Amino acid sequence: MEQTTTALDIGALNEKIEKESAFVDILTLEMNKVIIGQKHMIERLMIGLLGQGHILLEGVPGLAKTLAINTLSKAVHGSFSRIQFTPDLLPADVVGTMIYNMKLNDFSIKKGPIFANFVLADEINRAPAKVQSALLEAMQEKQVTIGDKTFILDRPFLVMATQNPIEQEGTYPLPEAQVDRFMLKTVIKYPQMAEEQLIIRQNLKGAYDQINPVVTLEQITRAQASVREVYMDEKIEKYILDIIFATRSPENYRLADLKPLISFGSSPRGSINLAMAAKCYAFIKRRGYVIPEDVRAVVHDVLRHRIGITYEAEAENVTSEDIINKIVNEIEVP
């Protein structure tokens, strides 16, 4: 009897999610007017938005990272701000500061660019640690304190930070503990030749298609709540935990050869984010339940910045990607 009820519940949930996720296709189509190719990046932006997480994008310049988040903010009817990180940036330039008002003979608060629905932190590794931590605190707490006043940030709130992998001179790489605050780290590849041909044509034409607001902020907030309702079976939870624990103690999973290559495994934030990202992925695919393929689809983006590699791994040219591949191929799929 109980089994039938569960099946009925999942059937009803599936219908509900199918209705509520209809806007994902509309939003993707709207973004595709301007963003050519980069399906992976758009999908990851959606996961970050629905999972109330933040995204670290790594890619060479000119791959439409700024354009993507700007387009998303227009399509969602949200506010957008861009912070260009430079070595002389101060925390007040990000969160805001108190200014003395001579007329009123008092201090007034000037809010910084962090007060927006979509914040692009461009080249986050160019600013010193003090500025990075001011941004990361806002990301984690979803609030900002200026002087003696605390402000709750607007919802939805999505930070997309970018970093350039090719220039490391004069940069301040994010410490491992801070990179862990990002739900996803997505590596962006070059477009295909046919896609790049379209990009050239579109740019030479000189005019982009107008992006219309097709989704409201309320719809996004409702979808963020619905994502949490997506059904995740105990077997899937166990599968996620096996993957996470294999990054910490590979020898318990017939992966003893990985032990000398891993300096530290994923934190519990990794398991939370992997479960959340899998639910978001299922939601985007308009399903009310999570399947193992959902976990496998997001595992690289969730874990690539959460596994530390040793000098031995570097010497052998083994990356965290290779380690994730080995783990995913070894762990039994439910």
UniProtKB/TrEMBL annotation:
Keywords: ATP-binding, Nucleotide-binding
Domain of life: Bacteria
Tagged with keyword Transcription regulation: no
Record field: transmembrane: none
Presence of keyword Nucleotide-binding: yes
Gene Ontology MF terms in the entry: ATP binding; ATP hydrolysis activity
Domain ATPase AAA-3 positions: 54-184
UniProt domain ChlI/MoxR AAA lid: residue ranges: 259-327
Assigned protein family: Belongs to the MoxR family.
PANTHER family (UniProt xref): MAGNESIUM-CHELATASE SUBUNIT CHLD, MOXR FAMILY PROTEIN
Entry protein name: MoxR-like ATPase
Organism phylogeny: Bacteria, Pseudomonadati, Bacteroidota, Flavobacteriia, Flavobacteriales
